[in-house]
């Protein structure tokens, strides 16, 4: 049962990672619980990280690199006891757009810059201000992102033969409609079957990593029956099986100016999602996170991820909740999760080549559904809610889908804060904990 009032993060030392305080009374029982939780989350994060990377327009392996590097740093240096970090669905829209416009090297530079912005923000204690961002804005762009993620998976879910689809929502829909005759019933069956398995396993055995079992069964079915669907190997070739050598991205003045807007929105999203995830985690373990320490850790994690040519990283609400349910109680669980993924990369990465693309589409379609929280969305749009809040949610959502995430957040925050000032409603909102 969740409390009616939001947890108030402890101020605490700015740069004191939670791991330093949680290890004071550490024992073997806690370590074993953290180790099991780390393994459980790693099994969930493996296919999800690959799927997020592919949906973002990147190579599959960079999702694993991000989970290893970003996940390790976020847990080792963060201000939350149980936060799990890595690539998340919220970044898919931004990352896809940056890669389409500036190339993958541009994304790496923007991610590096975003890390610096987050470190500076944490130093200035801006983490406390996150509690004043209007909740309808958060809900609006989250639903908008969920819609874009879902639509982006139609290609693989329906087996459409469409190459180089544009990033824009309407143009992408038109591109897929133009090749509708390439629809594959087999691909759709794999997508639906995988999705049903994931949902059933979550309900029947919630402590087990249902995602990995569902994907393994889908892969075995495709291989055993010779089903004509694309796999990671057939589309992308062999997945990378080690971390790349670290190197600095292009930090020329021209690049920094060109990519600053993208870097700012990456930093904003990373800060928003990580702190919301930390708040949800606080409620699950009756703890208090250190918001500014968490922001600094997110900054260092994104800078580190960029050094290894990874994607943006942040706290992941669903994986954090999985960690808590599996028995994780200290940052050691998050560190273990990153190390387990690294072991998989080094030892068993070739197995990922057999993962069917429709099965990965099923994972992201369910991720989008969970992000949208349809039951809660109905409540947020009910007549009992202020019409201004409903309008702000819908406006932010529409701008996210049809225009641009940067515009959506900028307009939404400006209008939301203006409405709160007009109503003299300047106390922090009561955050809703997403049901993942």
Automatic annotation (TrEMBL):
Its main location: membrane. The lineage of its organism: Bacteria, Pseudomonadati, Pseudomonadota, Alphaproteobacteria, Hyphomicrobiales. It is found in: Membrane. The keyword Transmembrane helix applies. GO terms for cellular component: membrane. Keywords: Membrane, Transmembrane, Transmembrane helix. It is a multi-pass membrane protein. Residues 31-380 form the SLC26A/SulP transporter domain. This is SulP family inorganic anion transporter. The chain crosses the membrane at residues 31-55, 61-77, 106-124, 136-154, 182-201, 208-226, 259-281, 332-349, 392-419. GO terms for biological process: transmembrane transport.
């Amino acid at each position: 049962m969740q409390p009616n009032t939001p947890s108030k993060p402890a101020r605490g030392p700015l740069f004191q990672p939670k791991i330093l305080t949680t290890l004071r009374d550490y024992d073997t029982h806690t370590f074993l619980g953290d180790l099991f939780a780390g393994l459980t989350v790693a099994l969930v994060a493996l296919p999800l990280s690959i799927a997020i990377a592919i949906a973002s327009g990147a190579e599959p392996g960079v999702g694993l690199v991000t989970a290893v590097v970003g996940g390790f740093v976020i847990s080792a240096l963060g201000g939350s006891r149980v936060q799990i970090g890595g690539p998340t669905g919220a970044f898919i829209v931004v990352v896809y757009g940056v890669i389409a416009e500036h190339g993958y090297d541009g994304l790496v530079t923007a991610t590096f810059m975003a890390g610096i912005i987050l470190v500076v923000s944490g130093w200035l204690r801006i983490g406390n201000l996150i509690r004043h961002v209007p909740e309808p804005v958060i809900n609006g762009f989250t639903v908008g992102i969920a819609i874009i993620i879902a639509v982006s998976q139609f290609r693989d879910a329906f087996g459409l033969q469409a190459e180089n689809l544009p990033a824009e929502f309407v143009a992408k829909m038109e591109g897929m409609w133009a090749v509708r005759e390439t629809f594959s019933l087999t691909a759709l069956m794999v997508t639906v079957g995988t999705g049903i398995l994931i949902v059933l396993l979550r309900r029947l055995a919630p402590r087990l990593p249902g995602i990995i079992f569902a994907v393994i069964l889908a892969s075995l079915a495709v291989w055993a029956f010779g089903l004509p669907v694309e796999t990671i190997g057939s589309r992308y070739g062999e997945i990378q099986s080690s971390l790349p050598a670290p190197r600095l991205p292009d930090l020329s003045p021209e690049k920094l100016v060109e990519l600053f807007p993208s870097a700012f929105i990456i930093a904003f999203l990373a800060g928003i999602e990580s702190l919301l995830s930390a708040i949800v985690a606080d409620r699950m373990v009756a703890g208090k996170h250190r918001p500014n320490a968490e922001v600094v850790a997110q900054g260092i994690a994104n800078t580190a991820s960029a050094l290894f040519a990874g994607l943006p990283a942040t706290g992941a609400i669903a994986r954090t909740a999985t960690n808590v349910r599996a028995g994780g109680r200290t940052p050691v669980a998050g560190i273990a999760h990153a190390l387990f993924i690294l072991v998989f990369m080094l030892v068993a990465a070739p197995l990922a080549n057999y993962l069917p693309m429709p099965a990965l589409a099923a994972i992201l379609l369910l991720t989008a559904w969970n992000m949208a929280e349809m039951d809660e969305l109905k409540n947020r749009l009910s007549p009992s809610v202020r019409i201004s809040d409903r309008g702000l949610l819908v406006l932010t959502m529409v701008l996210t889908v049809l225009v641009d995430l940067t515009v959506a957040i900028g307009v939404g925050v400006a209008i939301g804060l203006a409405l709160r000032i007009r109503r003299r409603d300047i106390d922090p909102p009561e955050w809703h904990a997403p049901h993942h």
